[in-house]
Amino acid sequence: MPGGARRCPAAAGGGRRRPAVSDGARSSPRVGAAAGSAPARVRRLLRHPREVALRIVFAGTPDPAVPSLRALLASGHEVVAVVTRPDAPTGRGRRTVPSPVARVAADAGLPLLQPASARTAAFRDELAGLAPDAAAVVAYGAILPRPVLDVPRHGWVNLHFSLLPAWRGAAPVQAAVRAGDPITGASTFRLEEGLDTGPVYGTVTEPVGPRDTAGDLLGRLAVSGAALLVATLDALADGSARPVPQPADGVSLAPKIALTDARVRWAEPAFAVDRAVRSVTPEPGAWTGSAWGRLVLGPVLPTDVTGLAPGELRVERRRVLAGTGTTAVELGSVLAPGRRSMPAADWARGVRPEPGTVLGRGDDEGPADPTAVRGAGAVSAAETGTGTGIGTGTGSGPAPSAVPTDGPAGGR
């Protein structure tokens, strides 16, 4: 087989339920988007995968891309190569390690392409030599130029973790949590040179729980999105895919999160502090300045306690409270410099904060983004059923809010 790629085992039989793939109309924004049994054309595809199997190049880098690669390896399609970012230094020792996707590809015995730049003619020629029918991309981490996008005859299918056109950009899941979107999801769309602007093939939706962190939500979307990606490629293979242009309304952006964006702004309302902290958990982690150095905080819990100034600490027997612009929040875990993460009450017993101690004093307490916080009385497009948001990709779902995606530009 060309390039040493192996034939992947066929998928399970026709009883498998599939995420919805658009046939020209919007898919309904239901959890899992697996409404009813698989269409007859998909059942036929599953029974006879070799008749319509595609040669696939997969591009991805971090952990959220791994479920999609594994799903493709278990499908009826042939993964002929994997493209991922070069090995990078990580951890305190700055040891160079392969990406999570690179490790899975190595275990599967797949050819691995790790170009320093996807813009070179050499990479384009190497890709063309694989003769892919389609390419799938999930959080690759680099822009793919037009000559590369033009190589596969079916183009590049991007799995994006939002309901497009909401939350285009590098951090859609974080944006959905920070905005308080009740529903988000994942979309597959044809990659083009614009930022997540291509026509949408299909979507799945996922409710956002009141205590979900970005990590929790992304973990679920990585799994449901993987099934959506395989279903999209199945539809491309049998000719039933009908990409739908994204609507002009409901567009919101989710740029990459900088470390400064993860600073806790204690002057904001308690609900906004809660959302902001969960939106950057586990990465990069919410932080605040203090007399003990920079503290990294785990999720906080809003309370009805009043009387504390923004950032002011109150240590009680079993909990530690911090003031906000409205009511206090209960601190969860605290990670101090050079220490391990521990419950806030244990941390406070060790450092014994003086009464009136204030976290973040001297920091600019203005909002990180004026669109990142919605007041309790505001109504989102998701709540009125008119916008779009992370996850569906067909123009239904949560509305604009604020925070990072996967780019066109290929490759988030």
TrEMBL record:
Residues 55-232 form the Formyl transferase N-terminal domain. (6S)-5,6,7,8-tetrahydrofolate binds at residues 162-165. Residues 256-351 form the Formyl transferase C-terminal domain. One of its GO terms (molecular function) is methionyl-tRNA formyltransferase activity. Its EC number is 2.1.2.9. Residues 1-38, 348-412 are annotated as: Disordered. SUPFAM superfamilies: FMT C-terminal domain-like, Formyltransferase. It catalyses: L-methionyl-tRNA(fMet) + (6R)-10-formyltetrahydrofolate = N-formyl-L-methionyl-tRNA(fMet) + (6S)-5,6,7,8-tetrahydrofolate + H(+). Residues 386-396 have a biased composition (Gly residues). Attaches a formyl group to the free amino group of methionyl-tRNA(fMet). The formyl group appears to play a dual role in the initiator identity of N-formylmethionyl-tRNA by promoting its recognition by IF2 and preventing the misappropriation of this tRNA by the elongation apparatus. Belongs to the Fmt family. This is Methionyl-tRNA formyltransferase. It comes from Nakamurella endophytica. The gene is fmt.
